[in-house]
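ok posting inputs for the zinc ion job
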Amino acid sequence: MPDRSQHPSDEEILQFIDDELPADCIEHLREHIAACPNCRNRQASIEGTLDALNELYTSEQFELGSTTARSRALLQKKLVKDRKSHSFWRDRVASFHLRLPIAAAIVLVFIGFAFYGGRKIWTDQPSLLNPQEEAIVPNHSLTPGAVRAVTLTDICSSTDDDLDPKVPSSTERAVFQEYGLPSNRHTRKYQIDYLVNPQLGGTNDIRNLWPEPYSNARWNAQAKDELERHLHQMVCDRTVDLAVAQREIATDWIAAYKKYVGRNS
Amino acid sequence: MNAAGMSSLSTNTAIGLVLRSSAEWMNRGASLEDEVLGLFDLMQTRLLRYAVSFGVTMQDGEDIVQETFLALFHHLQRGRHGDNLHGWLFRVTHNLALKRRMKILNDPAGRDTAQVEILDPNPNPEECMLFGERHARLASVLQALSIEDRSCLRLRAEGLRYREIARILGISLGSVSASLSRSLARLEQVDKR
Ligand SMILES: [Zn+2]
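and the output
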C-alpha cells in the first residue's frame, strides 16, 4: 500500500473523476488509485454521492414538466416579432446573404400561422386527439402535470374531496384553446380535469389541466375520478408511494387505472 | 420524464450536431430562427431547472429562459457563432436569474409572490415526501449551501467543464474545484448517516 502521506486529496480525486486534472498528474493519480484500496474507496464514495445528487436533480424534472410546445410557440412568435421590429432593412445590404434566408423563413412562419391560425400549435406533435377529437389521454407537452410540495399528513387529513375544483374561466378557455377546442362548442362535452388531482398534490397550474371527454365509453372522466379516489386511498394506506402515484397518473392514467383499479372492476 | 434526464454527454453531442448541421444549413439558406428553436428544444428544460434553482417562480423561470433565447438570437444575429453556446446559455440564464432573485429579495411584495409559488425545487426536509429519505437529506444540505456553491454543483451536473463554470460564476478555476469538493464532502457526510 502506498505511503499514506501521498494519498491524493478528495479534491484531486474529484478532479480525476471529472477529468479535470492537469495532464501530467493524471497517470500518477491513476496508478496510485489502482494500487490503493483506501483511495479506491474514497473514489467510490464520491461517485456514489455524485450519482445520488444527479438522481435528485433528475427527479425535479417531474415538477418542471417536459419541454412544452406552448413556450416554444411563444418563443417563435417573439423571434418573428423581434426580427420585424429590428433593424431588418437598415443593414440588409451589408449582410444580404444572411438576411435573405431569414426573410424567407419569416414568410414561411407567417404562412404557417395563417394556416393554423394559432389554433393547433401542437399539431406537429404526436397525435393526441383521435379523429373524433376525443382526447382520452392528455398531451404531455401541454400537460406534463404539476404538483406542490405536500406531506402525507396534508393530503390524508384533508376533507376536501372535490377531485376537480372549478378553475377560473380564463384558465378554462386557455386549456381548451391550447388543445385546439373552441370552448363554446366543447364545454359540455369535456371536463377540465386535474391530471394529478389536488388530493394527490396536483395544482391548478395550466400544466396540470387538460380537457377530458365525458363521452368515451370506457376511458372517461368518471373512470379517472374512480382511479383518483382509489389512489388517494392507497397512498394514505401507505400501499403506494405518493411520488409513484403522482408520476403514474401523470404519465399514463389509463395504465395506472388498469394497474390499480382494473383488477377490481 | 427520463428523456429529459438524459446524460449530459449525449446532450452535448446532440448540441454539437445541431450546431454543426446548423452551420451547414446557414449555407443552404435556413434561418437563425431554426437554429435558436433547435437549441431551445434541447436546452429549455435544463435552463429552466437552473433558473428556478435560484428560488424564482416557475413563471419567472420561464420568462428568464425566453429572455435567454431572445438574447441568443441577437448574439447569433451579430454573427457570434462561438463554439460554446452551451456555456453561453447557462451564463445568460445565470445572470438573469440572479438579477430576478435580487429584485425579489429587495421587494417585499415580490417576496410574498415568490412564496406563493410552491414548486420549490429544494423543499424543506419535512416537505420531502416527494423525494426519498436520501433525497430529502441531500436537499437540506443543498439548501444550506451558498448560491455559488449550489450553482457549481448544478452546472457540473449539467456537464459543464470547470473553466466554463468559472466563467459563468466569475470565479477562479481553483475556486470551482474547491467549492465542489467542499460541497460534496458535506453531502457525503449526511448521505452516510
Ligand atoms: Zn491512497
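notes: Chain B touches chain A through 63 residues (CB under 8 Å). Chain B is about 75% helix and 0% strand.
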